[in-house]
Design goal:
Elements: E1 4-15, E2 18-29, E3 33-37, H1 44-51, E4 59-64, E5 67-68, E6 71-74, E7 77-80, H2 83-90, E8 93-96, H3 108-119, H4 129-138, H5 154-166, E9 172-176, H6 184-201, E10 204-208, H7 212-216, E11 220-225, E12 228-232
Parallel strand pairs: 3-10, 3-11, 8-9, 9-10
Antiparallel strand pairs: 1-2, 1-4, 4-5, 6-7, 11-12
Helix pairs in contact: 3-5, 5-6
């Protein structure tokens, strides 16, 4: 059994009187590809955003490689991390958004360089050119390195967003409907990239999807409904 990478316990998120995530618990081993499925509005995206602290959960805990995300107990009291500490923790997690969120004034390579700079706290100005080329090649974007987002198709923009998420070698990649806006050709490229990253680098991936092809490539599927995990699959032997 592979060691535990991520442990989520009792994660809850309220928006006023509405409970978006209701006490979800989940354990993920290093090297797993996990798919989360469920109807729209069931809390999948909020759950992922709480793991990465893009949303502050109302209750519960998230631990990545034995380190708590968002705060820690000190002298018997819970101390939330500062925004600077949270930013440092988020560098260990790559996030692929539904809407790309690329910087429109930067080229594809420029968006990757920016991710490297942020990951290095501003000190990693040159980054890793070989890694950038490798990731862009895996996503069939070698000839798009110097194109800006508006010069790319939607599928190409999503592939750049995925490259940005993985170029810094994060411990965990969270992907929110990464093929939701893509045609079948671009979806296949993105899914092949996930599989190759998992196979070659033991990359751990948690993905929200409605894509049956994406679900079929995974050994573990988690179902959510009404903010709760209703059918978690057991951890698998890696």
């Amino acid at each position: 059994m592979a060691p535990t990478l991520l442990k989520v316990e009792g994660l809850t998120k309220r928006f006023g009187d509405r409970v978006a995530v209701a006490g979800c618990s989940l354990t993920i081993a290093e090297g797993e590809i996990v798919v989360i499925i469920g109807p729209s509005g069931c809390g999948k995206t909020t759950f992922l955003r709480c793991i990465n602290r893009l949303e502050a959960p109302t209750a519960g805990s998230v631990v990545l490689r034995d380190e708590p995300i968002g705060g820690q107990m000190r002298d018997g009291r819970w101390r939330p991390f500062t925004e600077s500490e949270l930013a440092s923790q988020r560098r260990r997690i790559g996030f692929v958004f539904q809407r790309f969120n690329l910087f429109p004034t930067l080229t594809a390579e420029g968006n990757l360089k920016l991710a490297e700079s942020v990951h290095g706290g501003g000190d990693n100005k040159k980054g890793d050119p070989e890694r950038r080329r490798e990731v862009l090649r895996m996503l069939q974007l070698e000839d798009k390195m110097h194109h800006k987002p508006l010069e790319l198709s939607g599928g190409e923009q999503q592939r750049v967003a995925l490259a940005r998420a993985v170029v810094t070698r994060p411990a965990l990649v969270l992907a929110d409907e990464p093929t939701g806006n893509l045609d079948s050709e671009n979806s296949a490229i993105v899914l092949n990239m996930f599989q190759e990253m998992n196979y070659r680098f033991n990359q751990t991936i948690v993905m929200i999807t409605h894509n049956p092809e994406a679900a079929a490539m995974c050994r573990r599927i988690i179902q959510m409904r009404d903010g709760q995990i209703v059918a978690p699959a057991p951890r698998v032997q890696i």
